[in-house]
User: Fold these one by one.
Assistant:
Number 1:
Amino acid sequence: MPATNTPSPSVADLQERYTDLERRIHALWPAHFRDACSRCTRICCRPHMFEDILSSDWLCDIGEKAYGPWWQTRTQANTLCPALDEDGCILAVGKHPFCRYFSCDMLLDASPDGPTLIADLFLSGILIQVCRIKKGASLLQIPRHDFARYARDIDAALTRGETEIRLCEAFSRTADPNDRERLALRMVALRPAAITPSATAQLAKRGFFSAEINR
């Protein structure tokens, strides 16, 4: 029999998977970064990030579907970021519908050991990697009318992200140092680019050297 083409996943299903992935990251964020996120001052290092979110059809759809009335109220605020007030960021740790994921020096400094630092870097980069759906195409820049055209690429990127979050969830479930090191090294093998030069220096400070990463 001739091979049949597998139909592309629907945009609705892809956005549901993205939202689920985002929520799974939210669930792990407090355990990884403890109170580090809540120490941001009103001089936010990324105050323009919300403007970037509003310029993305994909993220606007996610916000509307996942956060409903809360999202609508916040998007009407006349501010760089509606989660910032005179006392700083009002978002609780692990609740980041606006704040995108990245690893600042404060987050890296909060990591107590090498494997945890790797897991922190890995977790914070999952959505960034998902949005890089293919060379020359960012999910955040695709207009809404082209979502279906990129459905297979988005599906593949989400599949990679779902593999990565499962590793992070397994890391969070175990307290065994050997298991945590093994899982951290699997993360490095899956996404070597997560270990930047500054991360390598941070790992060396914790006695977790390149020989362990490269073995």
Number 2:
Amino acid sequence: MVGNGNVIWERFEEQTKLDFVGDPLNSRFFLKTRATAKKDVKVVARVSRVSHHVANASPRSVAGRVGVVKYTTTDTTNLFRLTRLLRFVL
């Protein structure tokens, strides 16, 4: 993989699993692929978790905290690993 600051796949999979294992039912996973002019595919995976805490007895009074982790890679040789991970998580 080119050393341009992108996250390598092994680290990507490890961090994503850690992020989902704690609270998989209250997480969202977005995967977007985009082709560049050089025909390299840029894969962006965004992990978003929202945790709600009830401030008082009213069900409409909900305070939320959002945590977002974003990973980017241009190495598509192991794209099947991300697909497998998505199936595992979802």
Number 3:
Amino acid sequence: MKNKCNITSIKKPNSSNKTKDQCEMRNILNTHFATTGERLAKSIPATDELFSSYLKCPVRDSFFFNAVTANEIVDQIGIIPENKTYGLYSCPIFLLKLSKCIISPILASIINTSIEHGIFLSKLKIAKIVPIFKSGDPTDPDNYRPISLLSIFNRIFEKVMYTRLIDFIDKNNILFTGQYGFRKNFSTQHALIDIVDRIHKNMDKGEVTCGVFIDLKKAFDTVNHSILLKKLYHYGIRVKALRKENQDLKNQVEQLSKEFKNLSVKIASESNRPTREVEQDRSIQFLSDKYDDFLLSNATIKKELDRLTHRLNEITNNAQRIEKALDDIEAYSYQYNLKVIGVPEISGGESALDTANLCLKLFTKMGANTSINDIDIAHRVPIRNSNVNKPKPIVCKFTRRLAKDALMQVRNEARKIKPSQLGFNIELDEQCDVIRVFEHLTPKAQSLLFEAKKFQSAHNYSYCWAKSNSVYLRQRDGSRAIKIVELDDLKKLSEGSSNTY
């Protein structure tokens, strides 16, 4: 370990005492850095969830390592910066560049042999550690960040492996599309652009955006290597394991075939029966044994299926809770909105300000005490049937809930307003439909209202309406209003059960 920060003293482990001895300080910091990951990993709460439950379908293709060539090593050495810092078991960069044509075939052979046998050179794992002070108490080891300087030959090894791995990963689309770090042609700026774009789209839809940001402490140090290797295998990085597995399977098949043949010949000679007939009998016995194995395997699969079913039920329940929360958020964002239909569009292009002024004129004619400051934004929305020659509906968002509620009290007055009273040609009074004002419902509430109206017609209910993104039914004058939360409520209502207020 190299003291880069000119550390004068450091705290001893589990003690308030400090030491100024350079050798002891190096050992304290080295032990601290080497055990941080293990200590943090032990503090992570255990979970009953298996990491494999989060993995989707495995990658069918397997990664195979193409042999490294001397020319490739020459190219890698050529792009190493002259001022590149190097660790142990290295040589100066300028000397490496001078001898690259001589040393490249040797390095290529070493790397290929290492990959073929699945062994990474132990000396290339040794790093020179430089402690970098972050902030806080300079005597506290926790306030230092280790910088590892590895051998320059390790860098060459990593680069040739990286180029092959990233080609395989990109070809099989393994990386998540939303990952922007450590990828070619991507940066953290792309992540910010993506987030801002999503927020803008949600704002256009009148939706609320919330974000959760997580910073994992010592994430690299706490990686479980056993899980990492299994996940690599899942994603197709299984060269050495696959080669060994195939060879073991081949050896077992050859051994079983040999034993089967010898046993058949022995039985045939002792029973004076043809070898072919004995082999047929043994094959039936073989299938019988395999059937017993199948029954045992089937029981194991059933147990696993039960576990997965239980897990699926948990996920379904969580998804339903999340869906309910999202519905509540969406309903909250809609509670300031009104929907106006039947108001003609201004010819020659209608701006958002024009639409807001039209709404203000309409609301004033209706007798509502509304000002332009009460309107946050007003805009036209597309008609579902584009072939219908009607003006696009207006969605008007208020800055105050009270202003919107006051307008809803006089919403029926909108039917009496003619386009000419809003500044349009008097001829439109006969051509346009009646102007109407409604609650602006979420898509889910709109669908529920549509089904409730069908239920109203089929069961002779007198009233069906929506208020604050909730749907209600009333059978007759004087009876209680029935709140419809979901489609099942309509089914229960037909069976005589209702939720009234």
